[in-house]
Amino acid sequence: MDKMFADKLLEMAKVWDDVLNAFFMKSNLHSRQILVLGCSTSEVIGQQIGQGSSIEVAEMLLPPLLERVHQQGIFLAVQGCEHINRALVVEKACADHYGLEEVTVLPALHAGGAMSVKAWQNFAAPIMVERIQAHAGIDIGDTFIGMHLRPVAIPIRLHVKELGEAHMTLAYTRPRLIGGPRAMYDGERA
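The structure assignment produced for this chain is given below.
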């Protein structure tokens, strides 16, 4: 790794730390809820999605996220790319808790992406699932994690809009508000 790339990674690591601090403050995740991560490491380094998967970027991003996930007692689901139908790496405990069906595929650098490969290597008991309904999400590089979020997704607006060269969106979810004009919601009871 050349010095310029290493310096860029160091700078991104600081931004990522700020993003994680703000995200976890605003997302209000509770124990055993699910956070889905979609990340194009190619986009982070300024290449077209799927064209420059970077293990170095994944190695920089995943450990601080895993640390926070473990501190909060939540589950992390890492979405792979379209070459594996956006299947996700999850801990077996997550699949057991939510009754998720395991599928047979292994993430690879060019079929799943660097982030799903690193998740597979770093999770205690990784398995792959085809779909999930996560409580919050982080999408780095427009990987389209929306299919894996519960309705209703609420954007989390941060001062940072990009990580490296990749556009970044964050969201949490809330239960649907149902009913008509007479319906009441939390805090409205008279």
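Interim note for the steering committee: The first helix runs from residue 3 to 27. The chain has a mean pLDDT of 92.
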